[in-house]
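FORM 7B - TANDEM STRUCTURE REPORT

SECTION 1: FIRST PROTEIN
SEQUENCE AND TOKENS:
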Amino acid sequence: KDWFSEHSIFPLWCDAKKGHGIKEIVHTITKARISIDERRLSRGMKIRPIRALALGFPNVGKSALINRIASKKVAKSAKKAGVTRDLRWIRISNGIDLLDAPGVIPPYLENQKSALNLALCDDIGEAAYDLDFVAMEFIKIIQKLSNNKISNISLKKISNRYGVDITEGFKDPNKWLFLTAEKHTSGDRRRMANKLLEDFRNQFLGNICLEIPL
């Protein structure tokens, strides 16, 4: 929060899937619109709709957030990247227009960690990475995050889901994938790796954040 304040950025946190924090966003947008309207009127200018842009990584819920703010389905939304393909102006309410845009990925990723996180979040195509490798790296991430209290990771929940202690995976991710594959996917490691990643994406392992908030 201090970093955002120092840069005159005031973030609003929300969960578009569950609807948490939406009222605060709508209230903030309305306040901004009123302020802009008053400024235009004071200068003898006509009031016109204010415009905002929904911009972010693919598959983070931009369209779902727009639908929540509009209180109706005005943008296509699905649990996969690439649903929004074109720029489209959407009238959210009287006086507010929002531009729904396709997800964007930086043309250059500074490190492998950024690419790994995008793969884990299903923001880049499966053909661009090795499932087995990403699954094993995810196990290492779980280990690292579990050492931080605010990560809220339940190792017991993960272990119970697969019937194999996840801490064994901390010692040897390769062996853990082998053992869980024997239990759940008839020994098919690729299917097991995919299952682990899909379980993470669908929050079956809990609300896991890949990076500790600032």
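SECTION 2: SECOND PROTEIN
SEQUENCE AND TOKENS:
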Amino acid sequence: MVCVCNATYCDMLDPLVLPPLGSYIKYESSKAGKRLEQSEGKFQRRLCAPDVVLTLDTTQRFQRVKGFGGSVTDAAAINILSLPEKAQDHLLRSYFSEEGLEYNLVRLPMASCDFSLHAYTYDDVPYDYKLAHFRLRDEDTKLKASAGREQSQSLHPLLQIPVLHRALAMSKRPLSLYASPWTSPTWMKTSESYVGKGTLKGQAGDRFHKTWANYFIRFLDEYAKHNLTFWAVTAENEPTAGLINNYPFQCLGFTAEQQRDFIARDLGPALANSSHRHVQLIILDDNRLHLPHWAKVVLEDEEAARYVHGIGIHWYLDFIGPIQDTVLPTHELFPDYFILATEACIGAHFWERDVILGCWDRGNQYSHSILTNLNHYVAGWTDWNLALDLEGGPNWVKNYVDSPIIVDSSEGIFYKQPMFYHMGHFSKFIPEGSQRVGLVASKESKQTDLEYTAFLRPDGAVVVVVLNR
């Protein structure tokens, strides 16, 4: 089952109002068709012993939450802006407003990725070490950022009010933007290609590495001109991808040692000495399989560690990297660095179909991942594309995947999938600054399929999320 939205109709939620003392509000979604359906009740003094009792212990305190959200890729922006303007508004409200999921994290590719129409960077002029030719592309100024009135007049009317500014305008919560590069300009790479196996030429501290570090600063400078400031950058999207022969789309290879040295000698100092010194730096941004090794290599080096704030993880190889062997020891070794899930989507594996409209199990997979991560000290969870088309694109290498919102631009409609509502059970109710607290099940729960977590919100309310698969 999917929910269909267009220019005149879209299902929305009432803004959250906390219940009076002694009462609770329940939001339920189900395979049978409930979608964040609201009901209220009062706490009972007597317990008519059910099978499972969950006991809350707010004296047990764990990690604080950074938030939840998704990614504004070129593909996501193209799909959103392909709709009639009122439908665009409904889609963005569904994610960012009080009547929607109240996302507060937005990830942006720094230039192109596979979910672009073509490969490009912001400075494809060879050996431009001064980055004199650095410029944002149409994909940024016409889709993601504000283009200014004069420029926007010449564009297609749908592109006049770009995505990020509209999301910011309708969001009551502060949005935290973070950016990740897929590839450097080809003239900086050993492969001299956007794709395939390749690293930066030379070594940390040289002009290639200094120029690449300055490229981050220029990106932040250019977005700042459009009144968009960033909470964080990741040092590289999936740095191990660029170590793989014939890798099919944009990548830039780093070993853990190369990332450590690049941060210590180039990227860390570049950020610290710029007007963007407040921007946080996230390492890894790759499958958790590489933990705790990657974190040890980078964070046991004092020079690199002083510039780093957090560790980003992707979900694609979770089935061969159990969380208790990867994330948990990393948190125990480096408790002062946050761990954030920075990318996830379904349909990326060859055995998965790209888009399956209305697939409840895919929603379950999202909730299972989020719950597992939250219960192991992860501070938040970022979905991949905010919206894709019926094929699961556009994607210039046809690496199609699924998304919580699927757009059918020919009909001027979009579909909210089960994944969308599963995301909402976390993003809407667990705001930034919430702290995970103890939640223990009675022994009987061993025989159930229940997964659960609990958080104390900054306003003093407690949120319990339970998944029954």
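SECTION 3: OBSERVATIONS ON SECOND PROTEIN
Residues 125 and 133 are 7 Å apart (CA to CA).
The radius of gyration is 22 Å.

SECTION 4: SIGNATURE
Preparer initials: ____
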